[in-house]
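Re: the 353-residue chain
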Amino acid sequence: MKNLHLLFFILGFMSLNFSNAQIDSLVFYNGNYLVGEVKAMSRGVLTAETDYSDSDFNIEWEKIKEIFTETYFLITTSDGGRYNGHVKTTSIGKIMIMTDTGQEIEVDHNDIVFLDDLDQGFWNQLYASIDFGVDLTKANHYMKFSTRATLGYVAKRWSLDGTYNSLFSRQDGTEDIDRKDGSVGFKYFLPKDWYPLVSVDFLANTEQQIDLRSTGKAGLGKFIIHTNRSYWGFSVGANYNNETYLPKTTVDSTGNEIITKPDDRQSWEGFLGTELNLFNIGDLTLSTKLIAYPSFTESGRWRADFNFDAKYEMPFDDDFYIRLGFTYNFDNKPVDGASKTDYITAIGLGWQW
C-alpha cells in the first residue's frame, strides 16, 4: 500500500512538471484515486476537473479519505471561520488549512463546509440560476407563465445576491393575475457565523392590490447549524416599508364608473426571520424561509412572508433541475377591499451555473 501511495504521488509530481495546471490529489475510501484540479466544494459535493475527461467529476465530500491541494481556495468551516489558502489531509479525518497569512489550522474533515477556487478569478465566485414554467389549457383560454432567477457573488468576507420572481396568469371571465417580487441583499461575515445584513426588496401583487411595496432592512443574523448537509439560522432587525396601491374601479347607482386610489402607506417595522436549507439528499435540495414584520408605527399591524422550495437535479446533468416553489404573503391589515393573503405554487424547469 505504501508503494502504491508513493507511485501515485510520483505520477502526480511528474504530471505537474508537464502541465501548467495545478495538481490536486484525492484518495477515496474505496481505494480509488483522482489527480486533477479541485474547483469547488459546496453543500457536501466536491467538483474536480481532469485533463482526461471533458466533464467535471462530482464527488460526495464524505467519500473522500484524503485530499492534497495546490489550488488556492476560499475556505469556510462549520464554526464560521473563513480563510484563504490550501488544504491537505494530515491523518484520516483531519485536514490542515494553510492560510495565506502563514497560519496552520487543523480541523475535522467534516468541518470543511465550503471551498472555492480563487485562482479562477471573478467568474468562478459568481453563481446564477434561472427557471421557467408554463401552463396552457384550451378551456377558458387559460395560461400561466412563471419565471425565477438568482444571481450572486461570494467573497472571503462578504456576499451579494439578488433574486427575481414573476407570475402572470390570464383566463376568460376573470381579471388577470400579475405578481412580481425581487430582492438585493448584502452580508458581511463575522467570526462564529454572525453576519450584519442589508437588503432592498420589492413586491407587486394584484391579489392584495399592491402596485409596489418597496422595503429596506438592516439587521444581524447568525447560523446556528452550518454543515455539509444543512444550515439553519435566524436574523433580526428593522425594516422601512413604503407601499403604493392599484386604482380601484367601482360602479355607482347610475352606472357610472368611479376610480379611486387608496392612499400610500409608509411605516417602520421590525423583522424576525429564520431560514433552513437541507441539501445532499441525493439529488434533492429543500429550502424554507419565514420572516415576520411587526409594525412599530401602525398599531396592531403585522405581516409575514413564507417561502418553500424543493429542487431536484437531473440525473443526466446536475446543471439542470426541476423546481417546485410555494410562496405565501400575509397582511392582517391590508388596504380596504384587498385580500389578507396571497399565495402561489409554481413548477419550473431550470438551469444553474
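Residues 2-17 form the longest helix (16 residues).
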